[in-house]
Amino acid sequence: MIVVEPYNVVWPQWFGVLQARLAPFLEGIDHQIEHVGSTSVPGLAAKPIIDMDIIVAAGGLERAIAAVVSAGYTHRGELGIVGRHAFGNPDGEPLPAHHLYVCVEGADSLRNHLVLRDHLRANPDAVRRYGALKMRLARVHVDDIDAYVEGKTDFILGVLQGAGMSLGSLDDIRQANKAP
Asked: What does the alpha-carbon distance between residue 76 and residue 159 come to, in Å, rounded to a whole number?
């Protein structure tokens, strides 16, 4: 069941808990950890799941993946999104619901996350429109996450196109967001 709820002020705190848990494992690796996705945008309705990107240079990718695995996560690979490595969460730990990715600096998949987040943070009207779209899609596609994701795609692509993302990159994102 897809649950989209009004913004919750606890989401940044959950991100902080998760970031602090990962920090010791990433010591010595040049990285940034970014809170991305809808829970990172004040006032935006969202699924109550924290999205996190660990950003590394291409040369640090293997070390970062190994560090995240040593923290108890399961490496799931790129899953069709170039430059973004997904992880399954540790078993048996009471952690906030989250999605964790290690992203290569400069990858379109990372740019997608950061540009959308930053645009929404700077545009309250876009937050209102995107939040209403997400709430409507969650009601219409209660048990169909693929249709929910595909339904958000045109809004996201409009933001990314406005930020100057290339047509090739936009097409890749459209294909990745298509329901199978």
From this structure: 28
The CATH number that applies at residue 122 is 3.30.460.10
- Quote the domain boundaries for residue 157: 11-176
Give tens-digit pLDDT for 82-98: 999 999 999 888 999 99
CA angle, corner 48, sides to 144 and 86, nearest 5? Answer: 75
Residue of 52, 51, 50, 48 lying closest to 6 (CA atoms): 48
Q: What is the pLDDT of residues 129-143, one digit of tens each?
A: 999 999 999 999 999
Cα-based distances in Å from 109 to 34, 36, 136, 180: 13, 12, 25, 19
User: Helix axis angle, 145-162 relative to 108-122, nearest 10°?
Assistant: 80
Report the number of distinct structural domains present in the chain. 1
DSSP state of 37: S
